[in-house]
Amino acid sequence: MVKRVSRGPSGHAIARCLCEAVAIEIDLPAFWAWHDHGPRSRRAHGAAYATYVGCRKKRVRVVKGKTRIARYDDGGETRNFCSRCGTPLLFEKKRSPHFVNIPRALFEGRTGREPRYHLNIVEQVDWAYFGGSLTPLKNYPGVMWQRPKRQTRAIEVSDFGAIDPPRTRRKK
Q1: The predicted structure's pLDDT at residue 167
Q2: pLDDT for position 171
Q3: Choosing a second label site near 5 at 20 to 30 A (CA), which of 75, 128, 167, 172?
Q4: Domain at 28, CATH number
Q5: Facing residues of 32 across strands?
Q6: For the whole prediction, is pTM greater than 0.90?
Q7: How many independent structural domains does the chain possess?
Q8: Distance CA 132, CA 11 (A)
């Protein structure tokens, strides 16, 4: 089944959770969009990083499933989830009381902003994929994999710090 692009009339975009019990509407364009590589977002989403769309609260409306939204508050951040399927829905920071952040993946259509910013980049994990060459995996249609890097041959270094070339036999 192919779904229509979730974009309402007159400049709105709809975000939906996995079970579609909750729907959130934003006015377009969103204020900003970014990738968060921090450990808190990584754990909340179960992914290498989370991509968010940020909006002013007055431009965001829960149009379906308000009673299905569960909250987790740790004092500085509040994260809202669908109580039925567990999808992360809204992310609010105490220091930014007029803004709310919504995971970009919940929108099927455009939001008016491309994620061009990376927060907490120094905390990115070494196991994340960042655009290396991929090859189809034999006998597994639709599965791609990244070949391991070849190990380089060690070069002998003498006590004096000079590099000794590899020894070869001479033909007589």
Answers
A1: 60
A2: 59
A3: 128
A4: 2.170.150.70
A5: 54
A6: no
A7: 1
A8: 36
